[in-house]
Specification:
Blueprint: H1 5-15, E1 20-22, E2 27-35, E3 43-52, E4 58-64, E5 68-79, E6 82-87, E7 91-93, E8 97-101, E9 106-113, E10 122-129, E11 134-142
The structure holds copper (II) ion (CU).
Copper (II) ion binds next to strand 9.
Amino acid sequence: MRGRYPVLAGLILALTFTAAASEEIGVSVRDAWVRESPPGVAMMAGYMALRNDTSRSQVLVAARSSDFETVMIHRTIVKDGMARMEHASQIEITPNASLLFAPGGYHLMLLNPKRTLRAGDRVDVNLEFRGGLVLPVAFEVRK
Ligand SMILES: [Cu+2]
């Protein structure tokens, strides 16, 4: 099942500005962005589209950024009409599938920024997958 396509797709993605790809793990990210927070709010949410072009499951187990004290993987769920956030210790991306981090669903919870981040700024986040592999992703701060 592991043909040339995942490698080729990885190379093409690596050449575009916002995309990050790792041939080693065959996982890529596009449209990575962080929502700008009002002044004084020490919490931001990060969104992205993750793609697994390998023929096996990939498991995201952690995320880290030197711009934040803490980064957690969260999921917003609505129960009995109330929205709340749940911590996800790991997220599986099934083979040849995409997983969306979007408002109202999965997001990276970025806590206690170490510098002021405004629209247009860049935040570097390392996504860590089971097996010890790390995928660096550049997130753009947007309004
Ligand atoms: Cu959250």
